[in-house]
Design a protein that fits this description.
By secondary structure, chain A is an alpha/beta fold. Chain A has 14 helices and eight strands. Chain B folds into two domains: about 110 residues, Fumarate Reductase Iron-sulfur Protein, Chain B, domain 2, CATH 1.10.1060; about 70 residues, no CATH class. The chains are: A alpha/beta (about 300), B mainly alpha (about 190).
Chain lengths: ~300, ~190
């Protein structure tokens, strides 16, 4: 593997750096231990939010995402990111622009005004994909990096939507990631940390936040989240893990809102896989900023530390 | 779950009327949806797999299959003025399962784009635009988080437009090119005074 393959421009998005900074610090530290350097992507902005911008005007959505892509092209580096929503914008727009000349020309006409040009010279990866793919890291290396196994913890996975769906457009080297009805690759990653992955009813259901619905009709949005929480309660888990800070926000802060609006509480800790990986590699809860979570992670931490 | 958004009276009446009137149809609408969505709605044979896969369907009157039919029949007003248009979470389950290889989610997105051209848009979408115009971020940083970032060994502001505000100008130029900020400000002002 060449040196360049170990370095990625780290695209942060909004919710990770501005609400759950532990996802950011854990990704940088954990990936470094696994041989991948995440380099700051200077001047990046919101991806932009695919629900809001895609709904308003897809042309703006393409142009705004292209600006972020060009910043990485100028660094001559592939992008790594840690959010499914950002993946939808950054990966998908990169893919669309590479394959559709009319869209590429339209975007470049706008980018010209700010002295930029989209060339289509880089690729975009989700950190979960880098962790799972042997070409970059792979499950065995993740397992070998664990110093504090999360033994005894029952952990369920929320895959989220936009990393793998729509699967007919996606291009993963690992075919197994294209199964969107019942994937198990994240469960493999959870097991690699020493925890017990737990299946639950309708696990591929959306968190309910996307498409602008969280802002448009919060009760409707939370009702979808609540259904997932009911299904999770049924099997009894110590934590839920995700690979999307927006889903994390919906499950974490959403539980407070669900308590207010529906009068039910679950107290289920919700952690990004990067945070779990950080814990398993020996980072402290303080180093991960787990105190910033709306739902206390304490019961889960007591079990694994 | 009780409906939280009311329909306009005229639409309510129309939704109760199941007949199809050719004068309600706008063939341009069908073409526009196809051009924006880059998927072929008229391949739809109304099997309902989309609605069956939809997380919004069981808790509302939102039926993606109905919107697919509206796309094919050119029922522009019904589609664009229906508040249910905004209940799609864009989870793409329907797109993954469609036996005709259509992307119903992208049909919805195209309809929302067309609705926006008529100023039909929930205010929360526009507020995201305003936030990004100002800071580059849809969810901006705050002081509690800055302190936390410092504690985690990160920079107080992330190395994005937050730390390098000189990049915001480029974002504003893109948004101004499409007159998006001006339109967002105008519509928000009309709704909220």
């Amino acid at each position: 593997m060449s040196e360049a393959k170990h370095k990625f421009a780290f695209y942060l998005g909004c919710i990770a750096p501005n609400r759950y900074p532990g996802c950011e610090s854990a990704s940088i530290k954990a990936m470094k231990k696994l041989g991948i350097e995440l380099v700051p992507l200077k001047g990046a902005s919101c991806c932009p939010a695919p629900g809001a911008f895609g709904s308003i005007d897809l042309n703006v959505f393409y142009a705004m995402a292209a600006r972020n892509l060009v910043l990485a092209e100028q660094m001559n580096m592939d992008i790594a990111l840690l959010c499914n929503g950002c993946y939808k914008s950054i990966w998908e727009v990169n893919h669309k622009l590479k394959h559709n000349k009319d869209l590429r020309d339209g975007v470049n006409e706008v980018l010209k005004e700010i002295g930029m040009e989209y060339k289509g010279t880089i690729n975009v990866y989700h950190t979960a994909e880098l962790l799972y793919n042997d070409k970059f890291i792979g499950v065995e290396k993740v397992r070998a990096s664990v110093t504090n196994p999360l033994t005894g913890a029952r952990i369920a996975v929320h895959y989220g939507c936009h990393l793998t769906k729509p699967h007919k457009d996606r291009e993963f080297e690992k075919e197994v990631m294209l199964n969107t009805d019942h994937p198990v690759w994240m469960e493999e990653l959870v097991a690699a940390l020493g925890a017990t992955p737990v299946e639950y009813r309708n696990k591929m259901q959306c968190c309910g936040a996307g498409g602008g619905v969280r802002g448009y009709d919060i009760v409707h949005s939370l009702d979808i989240t609540n259904e997932k929480l009911i299904n999770l309660k049924e099997v009894g888990v110590d934590a839920l893990t995700d690979i999307c800070p927006f889903c994390q926000l919906q499950f974490d802060r959403g539980q407070i809102e669900i308590k207010e609006k529906f009068g039910v509480s679950y107290d289920l800790p919700v952690l990004h896989y990067a945070e779990l990986l950080g814990l398993a590699q020996g980072m402290s809860p303080q180093e991960l900023g787990l105190d910033l979570h709306a739902i206390s992670c304490e019961p889960f931490l007591q079990k694994v530390l | 779950m009780a409906r939280t958004k009311g329909y306009p009276e005229a639409l309510e009446k129309k939704l109760n009327d199941q007949r199809y009137y050719s004068e309600d149809s706008n063939p341009e609408f069908t073409k526009n949806v196809k051009a924006i969505s880059r998927t072929i709605a008229h391949m739809c044979f109304q099997c309902g797999t989309c609605t069956g896969s939809c997380p919004s369907a069981p808790r509302s009157s939102y039926r993606i299959r109905l919107f697919m039919r509206r796309a094919v029949l050119g029922l522009e007003n019904e589609a664009l003025t229906d508040p249910d248009l905004w209940l799609c979470t864009t989870c793409y389950s329907c797109t993954d399962r469609c036996p005709r290889d259509i992307a119903p989610t992208d049909v919805i997105m195209a309809m929302r784009n067309l609705a926006f051209k008529r100023d039909i848009i929930p205010v929360n979408f526009l507020k995201t635009v305003q936030a990004i115009y100002k800071t580059g971020h849809g969810v901006p940083n705050n002081d509690v988080n800055r302190a936390a970032r410092e504690r985690l060994g990160l920079t107080r502001d992330p190395p994005t437009t937050h730390m390098y505000p000189e990049y915001i100008k480029g974002i504003q130029t893109i948004l101004d090119h499409y007159k998006l900020k001006a339109n967002a400000d105008r519509i928000v002002k009309e709704r909220e005074g």
